[in-house]
Amino acid sequence: MEKKPQFSGPRRPMGAGAGPRSGGMRGRKGAPQRDERNPYVINEHIRAREVRLVGDNVEQGVYPLHQALKIAEQQELDLIEISPNAEPPVCRILDYQKFLYQQKKRQKEQKAKAAKVVVKEIRFGPQTDDHDYNFKLKHAIGFLKEGSKVKAYVFFRGRSILFKEQGEVLLLRFANDLEEYGKVEMMPVLEGKRMTIMLTPLKAPAKKDAPAKDKGEKQDKGQKPEAAKNTDSKEN
To answer: Which residue of 6, 116, 183, 226 is most buried, as measured by CB atoms within 10 A?
Structure first.
């Protein structure tokens, strides 16, 4: 009788893809994987043979890794790899938690300063009449006062491109009429059928308290004669 092959179940595949690697949440050679909470490699997880130390609390230069770690240990601080792609990597010796706090604080300040720039467009024809011009000038003043940039352009249709010089004069007049509210960021430039000029708002002038002081001084001056009359009447 022929012997039937015994079924022992599916065999587990062999090789590199046999199963999940141990430490899958860790980076190379056991170093913690960098993420938003830990964006830098520090201390014994740095794998370079030598590093370049920078900062105020060390003598700057290239050091073997073990020596850089020893310097950080002596100062009871951390060795932080701030530029891993440099050759050799650049490190600083700081308190890691304090360093992260300063980085986050700096990023918040930069985001707060980076205000969104609003650009308002105003369109002219090469032969815009005074009524339409003044209407658009009034709008431009409002835009600049609120802190928006103004992009004014003359659109040339068909053969009206022959009046490009007239369009340039119009835009320069427009910029001149707005000099109290904005400054020219870009002079008139012809791009295809458009001639464009860009204006950016001036900084808001500081409030003047001088008139109030003058009024106070005038009131004081006006009260002095009355006070003098009262003293005279008392003497009499």
So the answer is: 183
CATH number of the 33-107 domain: 3.10.20.80
User: Pairing relation of β-strands 41-42 and 78-83?
Assistant: antiparallel
Q: Which fold has domain 119-201?
A: Translation Initiation Factor IF3 (3.30.110)
Write out pLDDT tens, residues 8-18.
444 444 344 43
Kindly state the DSSP code that residue 15 receives in the 8-state scheme: S
In angstroms, the CA 190 to CA 135 distance is 24
Among residues 113, 141, 136, the alpha carbon closest in space to that of 125 is found at: 136
* Cα–Cα dist 185/54, whole Å: 40
Q: In what order do the strands lie in the sheet with 194-201?
A: 119-124, 149-155, 194-201, 182-191
More confident residue, 225 or 123: 123
Dist. CA 38–CA 20, nearest whole Å: 24
Dig out the tokens for 206 from the structure.
């500081």
> Which ranges constitute the DSSP H helices of the chain?
65-74, 96-113, 130-145, 164-177, 210-235
Count of other CB atoms within 10 angstroms of residue 38 = 13
